[in-house]
Specification:
The chain is about 65% helix and about 0% strand. With about 210 residues, it is mainly α.
């Protein structure tokens, strides 16, 4: 896609959401990272419902380890993949205590080495907490950026590489959240609201599907 068109897309998205930010509720850096781990294949709404109570008893690595995997499962059992997430969160917390004095490392390679922390989670953390221009790719970002024609990619990792290369510097900090919000509210997986979309004249998907 031409640079001017990409710039125009993000200008319109920014107009709709001037101050985009994460919808996850958190107390500190640690609880934010845990929220992002929990959000994999789950909605922010469902994560916020459980962390509202979880973070009252476990808001740092030591408290999480003391809580233990069995009790943690009871807090997060309404979230998808809660068994594996509980196991990873305890292992992650133990590693933070042992290797990093309970502090979360800033370096990307160290973040992704933590149990349960992949490319997307590390990128979300670096963007939201460290204010680095990372464009994490979840199902919404992947769908919207490909439908619009900003990229033509087959995987989330390919999408991130392309977006971070071609999205104008001005929009890189907010691109992740702008694309997510558009995907949740307008460009939905099923029955996207193309007729109501401010980007419909710029969108490859809409042009192909005009009746």
């Amino acid at each position: 896609m031409e640079k001017y068109k990409t710039n125009r897309i993000f200008r319109l998205l920014s107009k709709e959401n001037p101050h985009p930010k994460t919808e996850l509720k958190y107390i500190n850096r640690y609880t934010f990272l845990i929220s992002v781990v929990l959000s994999a294949q789950s909605t922010d709404v469902s994560v916020n419902k459980v962390t509202k109570y979880l973070f009252k008893v476990a808001k740092n690595p030591e408290e999480m380890v003391d809580l233990g995997e069995k009790k943690l499962k009871k807090f997060i059992k309404t979230i998808g993949l809660y068994n594996s997430k509980a196991k990873n969160i305890i292992l992650l917390s133990q590693e933070l205590i042992k290797k990093y004095n309970s502090k979360i490392p800033k370096e990307f390679d160290k973040l992704v080495s933590l149990p349960g922390v992949g490319n997307k989670t590390a990128s979300v953390y670096q963007n939201a907490i460290l204010k680095l221009p990372r464009i994490a790719v979840d199902t919404h970002v992947f769908r919207v950026s490909n439908r619009l024609g900003i990229v033509k990619t087959l995987t989330a990792d390919q999408t991130q590489l392309q977006l971070e290369k071609i999205v104008p510097k001005k929009w890189k900090m907010d691109a992740h959240h702008l694309l997510i919000l558009h995907g949740r509210r307008v460009c939905k997986s099923q029955n996207p609201s193309c007729d109501e979309c401010s980007l419909n004249k710029l969108c490859s998907y809409n042009l192909v599907n005009i009746h």
